[in-house]
Amino acid sequence: KVDLNRICSRISKYSTASRGDILLVLDGLLSVMNESLADGESIHLGDFGSFRMVAGSKGSSTEKDFNTSLFHRAHIVFYPGTMLTDTIRNASFEKYNIPGTESKPEEGGGGSDRPEIE
pLDDT band at 28, cuts 50/70/90? Predict the structure, then answer.
């Protein structure tokens, strides 16, 4: 898990901005995002991706029967941009054996994983 402070520290290694400066900018970004999403705007952050708030509703047979109680709880949807989709596309996987848990070849070729009773 990487928290906001660690992200700020890592970014500061790649720039001349301090961790505090980066934290200030990201805090401002989050404030602007909250305001924009609450106003119904979508947020586009270039190659990183975009955010928008969505809320569906149940239908009603007439306009008169429709009211705000029919809305579902709103949630924020993130659509990754090319930077993140490239990361996903280029991901590779390999099996990791935990040291000391490697399976050893069986002797005698019995083929059963049950103990033998003599």
Answer: very high
Sign of CA dihedral 7, 42, 53, 68: positive
Between β-strands 75-80 and 49-54, what pairing exists: parallel, antiparallel or unpaired?
antiparallel
Report which of 71, 32, 33 is spatially closest to residue 51, judged by C-alpha positions: 33
Q: For residue 33, which of 24, 47, 43 has the smallest C-alpha distance?
A: 43
Distance CA 48, CA 59 (A): 35
pLDDT in tens, 47-104: 999 999 998 888 888 888 888 888 888 899 999 999 999 999 999 999 888 888 776 6
- Cα distance between residue 98 and residue 30, in whole Å: 40
Taking each helix axis from N to C end, the angle separating 4-13 and 19-38, rounded to the nearest 10 degrees, works out to 120
Return the sign of the alpha-carbon dihedral for residues 6, 11, 15, 20: negative
Helices (H), the chain: 4-13, 19-38, 82-89
